[in-house]
Each structure stands twice: as C-alpha cells, then as structure tokens.
Amino acid sequence: MRLPDSGMEMGVGVKWSQTIQDKALIPGFLKEKELSELVARTTCCWGAGLKKEMGDLWLFLLLPLSAFHGVKGCLECDPKFIEDVGSLLANLIPSEVPGQTQLLEWQIKEMISLSFKVSHSDKRLRVLAVQQVVKLRTWLKNEFYKLGNETWKGVFIFQGKLLEVRQNLESKLKELLKNFSEVACSEDCIVVEGPILDCWMCLRMTNRCFKGEYCGDEDPRKAENREIALFLILLATVVILGSAVLLFHFCIFHRRKMKAIRRSLKEYLEKKLEELMGNIDEEEEKDFRLRK
C-alpha cells in the first residue's frame, strides 16, 4: 500500500535515498537511548577499523529482517517516506564529519523504527486515519527543514536535537493513536471520516467502526475455547477428587468391615473353643466317675 504523496521535492541525496529504500526498510526495535549512549554508538566507528565496523553494523541491521519481515509501523508503510527521511538527514550532516556514513545510518534506523515501537507497544495502538499519518509525516519533514536552516554546531549537538525530534514524534504519535482508538472503538461507534490505516499490516480500510482485535479486545472464539478448556479442567479435577474421596472412603469402610469380621470370627472361635473345652472336661469327668 502506498499512502498519498506529500509532494516533497527530492533534492541532494537522491543516491542515498535509493540506498535507504533497498536497505533501511527494517523495522527497528531498540529503545530510546540517552545522548551519551548515542554519542558512544556513533563514535565507535571512527578511526581505525572503519570497514570492519561498517560490516558489523549492516549485519546488525539485517538480522531482524528474517524474523520480522513485513512488520512495520504507521510511518514506514509508505516507501516514499523512507526515501525522504534518508534524503533530508543526508543533507543535514556535512560530508566532512568523521564517521558521517555510520552516523547517518544510525539516525535513519532510529527514526524509521520509532513508529514500529510505538504502534506495537499496545494492541489498541494499531489503526490511524491516513490523513493524520500524512500530517505527522509533514510535521517531521518540517522539523528536518528547521534543523537544516540552523548553523551546524557539531555532531553532539546535532544528535541531541534529533533525539528531541524523535521524542516529540513519539509523543505525538502515541497521542494520535490513543485518541483515534478511543473514537473508533467507542461503544457509540462514532463515524470516522476518510480511509483508515492498519499500521501493523500497512492496509487501507474503509471501516467506520472497529471492534475485537483492532481495539485490543479478545477474539470471541479464543474466549469460548478458553471457557471450554477451563470447564474441562474443572470437570477433570472434580472427577479426580471425587474418585480419590470414594477410594479413600471405600478403603476405610473396607478396613473397618474387615476388622469387624475378624473380631466376630475371633469371638466365635473363642466361644466354640470354650464350648469344646467344656465338653472335653465333662467327658473326662464322666470317665473318672465310671472308673470309681
């Protein structure tokens, strides 16, 4: 899907834009770093071993591609936007800056991965009006133009300003996604004007109301399956516990019954033995009398 073109004229840096289109369409997922960390990350490639560091950097950038191919954010759905970001940033960094290529690669990656991080942080932050996406991209380009009109004061200050731009962009994007989700997923089903963008799949939709997965709600089938599984688990638990109780009761009852039987048998045998001994005594007494 290609969003409406913002109409930005391509100036210097077209060659770099083509490189970005080929290599930078990789959704990032690194968290925002402090300025000191950004400086350290940038300066790691200065000096000796520049070629080796470049190879390691591209390897690091390309590793997530196999796992997250096709997964993007709201701003990355338009390849033209990626080209514009690369061109504008290329024009902002003087060519004589040490490690310019590595610095540019890092800043572009951080910028294009930001919307992925925001939209994938919450299931409800998935859909946004296309018109709002266009306005947000326009705002970002204007911020780049403002930076381009300022006097170059060094790489550290430049990175600090870009960090501030990214933080403002993240805040604006979160607010837009949250507000739009509240409107589109409301119970009153407020009508949403214009096409809608699914930031996860880069699909344009004409839906006026959203529910279920797009609003962070659980799939009814999954909920039903969970209820069935829970019922079966409870049923199996009751059966097992019932069987254990019955088995315990049967064992106790059987044991008591066997004790009673043994007791009765013992009493019966003792009684018979006493009778038998009594009969023997009587017979012996009779024999003794007859002998006298």
From TrEMBL:
Q: Does the keyword Cell membrane apply?
A: no
Keyword annotations of the record: Membrane, Signal, Transmembrane, Transmembrane helix
- Protein known as: IZUMO family member 3
Extract the InterPro entries matched here. Answer: IZUMO (IPR029389)
The record lists the organism as Papio anubis (Olive baboon)
Example GO molecular function: protein homodimerization activity
Pfam families the UniProt entry points to: IZUMO
Query: For this UniProt entry, which segments traverse the membrane?
Result: 228-253
Its family remark reads: Belongs to the Izumo family.
Which Gene Ontology CC terms are recorded? inner acrosomal membrane
Gene this chain is encoded by: IZUMO3
| A single GO BP | acrosome assembly
Record's keyword annotation contains Signal: yes
